[in-house]
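Please decode residue identities from the backbone states below.
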């Protein structure tokens, strides 16, 4: 809460100076905090191959920390919507006019998050795990990419299409797709969005979320923020 309060105060100052709606980009990410000993709610995570906590971290587009939520070691989407709503409500209560966009990787791709963003007018672009239904839609663009790669060695084409994603999807959503061929082979990538800009613009905007990983490294390596030395979950 204290981190979020300080961040909001910075936004207030920015708004007072310009009197313009504040653009807020929130990068959501999670990471592993390895635990040693008998920490409460430390659980084994197969991807990381260790007993961990799995905190949820939020940064803005300037790298400023917005919020952090410590979670047990096998959480995926738990707490994501609640944390987004908390940030959104605190901005509204602060009286700062804002336009919000959320960026996140495929670990955050679930319908409840899309629906909340759409209901609140939050823009989002979220990665998707490669799936046969997506690759089938991308195949015509992949064929063009293969022709380009045969002539030039590599290729990268960005396109988009709409499809109903998930059994609980009430309407088709926009998918941004990258048909890429490198020296290592084919590398298709997908993301879901409600942004309206051209596909190339949305894709380049999404790649900016990679900076969030650097901020997490700073938290863990420079600040020792992943020291979880207490037994109880609340103390950590």
């Amino acid at each position: 809460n204290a981190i979020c309060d300080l961040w909001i105060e910075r936004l207030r100052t920015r708004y007072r100076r310009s009197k313009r709606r504040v653009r807020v980009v929130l990068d959501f990410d999670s990471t592993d905090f390895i635990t040693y000993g008998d920490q409460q709610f430390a659980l084994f995570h197969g991807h990381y191959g260790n007993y961990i906590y799995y905190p949820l971290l939020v940064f803005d587009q300037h790298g400023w920390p917005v919020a952090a939520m410590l979670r047990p070691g096998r959480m995926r989407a738990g707490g994501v919507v609640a944390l987004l709503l908390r940030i959104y409500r605190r901005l509204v209560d602060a009286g700062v006019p804002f336009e919000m966009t959320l960026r996140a990787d495929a670990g955050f791709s679930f319908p409840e998050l899309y629906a909340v963003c759409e209901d609140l007018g939050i823009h989002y672009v979220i990665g998707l795990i490669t799936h046969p239904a997506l690759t089938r839609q991308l195949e015509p663009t992949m064929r063009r990419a293969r022709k380009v790669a045969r002539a030039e060695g590599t290729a990268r084409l960005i396109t988009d299409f709409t499809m109903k994603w998930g059994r609980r999807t009430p309407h088709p959503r926009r998918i941004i797709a990258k048909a890429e061929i490198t020296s290592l082979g084919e590398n298709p990538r997908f993301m879901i969005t409600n942004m309206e800009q051209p596909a190339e613009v949305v894709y380049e905007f999404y790649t900016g979320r990679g900076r969030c990983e650097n901020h997490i490294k700073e938290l863990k390596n420079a600040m020792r923020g992943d020291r979880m030395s207490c037994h109880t979950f609340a103390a950590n």
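Observation: The longest helix spans residues 132-152.
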